[in-house]
What we know:
heterodimer; A: mainly beta; 11 strands; 54% strand; B: six-stranded mixed β-sheet; three-stranded antiparallel β-sheet; 44% strand; globular
Amino acid sequence: QVQLQQWGAGLLKPSETLSLTCGVYGGSFSAYYWSWIRQPPGKGLEWIGEINHSGSTTYNPSLKSRVTISVDTSRTQFSLNLTSMTAADTAVYYCARFAHDYGGDFWGQGTLVTVSS
Amino acid sequence: SYELTQPPSVSVSPGHTARITCSGDALPKQYAYWYQQKPGQAPVLVIYKDSERPSGIPERFSGSSSGTTVTLTISGVQAEDEADYYCQSGDSSSTYMVFGGGTKLTVL
């Protein structure tokens, strides 16, 4: 059974950098795209970006200047860095596995990230 | 930037049929996916490639596509189907992923 487990700091001050990591347990790591998605409190889902096992990335144009997604295939993990955090970045952040023409079939548990001075 | 448009809310009585639409200019060229999200939980994939159902998803969930609109249909709605539903697709050049704004399904 595939499991995605994510971790990272949940409380940040304005201007700090968010760092989250998602560990993938079970299943193939190379056959999928690995995404980060966020959801502000009471609002909808927003795709942040994705990476494949070879390190090829695609980012949401609205966040591209502040986002870096990286991968560590030896540990089957991928990570999100989001710089210059503001209160508008307060959200639950999810990692998820996406398959070509199949969608996001496995998701992490979500991490609430709050930006406050 | 590319957008997918969903109605904010849909209400239905138990046992009836709920239809949730999602509109976007690239939908004739891109597959759509549907997710169910209950409070405090991660989204769950209920439809992929416009109309395919993942294993474990009840048969009352179905999807269809017509031009720039895709539709999630829930037949014989049950109380447990009350949730937020999101469509997801890609832009016309398959550069990035987009989610619709979400539809809150209320079972009366």
